[in-house]
Amino acid sequence: MQLTSAKSIEATSCGDCTACCRIFAIAEINKPQHVTCKHLCGSLCDIYENRPRECAEYFCGWRQGLITGVDRRPDKWGVVFHRPADTAVPSLYVYELVAGRSQDKDVQWAVAKFRKRFPDFRVVYIAPETFLENAKVSVVGADFYLKNGP
Ligand code: SF4
Ligand code: SF4
């Protein structure tokens, strides 16, 4: 997880994006998945200097340069590209901030571009507030779309 900072110096700095502080679980501070971190104050972290290592070392796909463009910063784009390190199959997780956003033309264009670069990866789309362990697979194929409920 990467600290969100008000400083926006580089094109790929977090700026005032807080997407990952709202999506991911952070064990060190007992932050559950899909719960906004209690340390988030606006777009700033109130424990910035002592934030968990998980936060300090996190780079989403946009920050890794998998996708480029200021309009594709996750909070603006509506999805977070995330490459988990611990999956048996190499995967790109596309977390939606807004339901259905992953099917947007520009997001699909970026996914197609990713596929060309990483043909062995599968793509897993994850609807907002979906817990992977409880998720229902609504589309099966080369890709998965995971969401809560029926
Ligand atoms: S501790 Fe700070 S950087 Fe980590 S999730 Fe919370 S607000 Fe974000
Ligand atoms: S989702 Fe990416 S750009 Fe947004 S705060 Fe997290 S690491 Fe920074």
Give descriptors for this structure.
disordered N terminus, 2 domains, binds iron/sulfur cluster, 5 helices, two-stranded antiparallel ribbon, globular, five-stranded mixed β-sheet, 150 residues, 7 strands, 20% helix, alpha/beta
Detailed description of the structure:
Helices cover 20% and strands 19% of the residues. The chain has 150 residues and is of the alpha/beta class. The protein has 2 domains: 1-58, no CATH class; 60-150, no CATH class. A 5-stranded mixed beta sheet has the order 3-4-5-7-6.
Question: How many E strands?
Answer: 7
Largest sheet: 5 strands, mixed
Query: What's the rounded overall pLDDT mean?
Result: 87
Shape: globular
Number of structural units classed as domains: 2
Strand content: 15-25%
Please write the string of helix (H) and strand (E) elements.
Answer: HEEHHHEEHEEE
Alpha carbon gyration radius: 15 Å
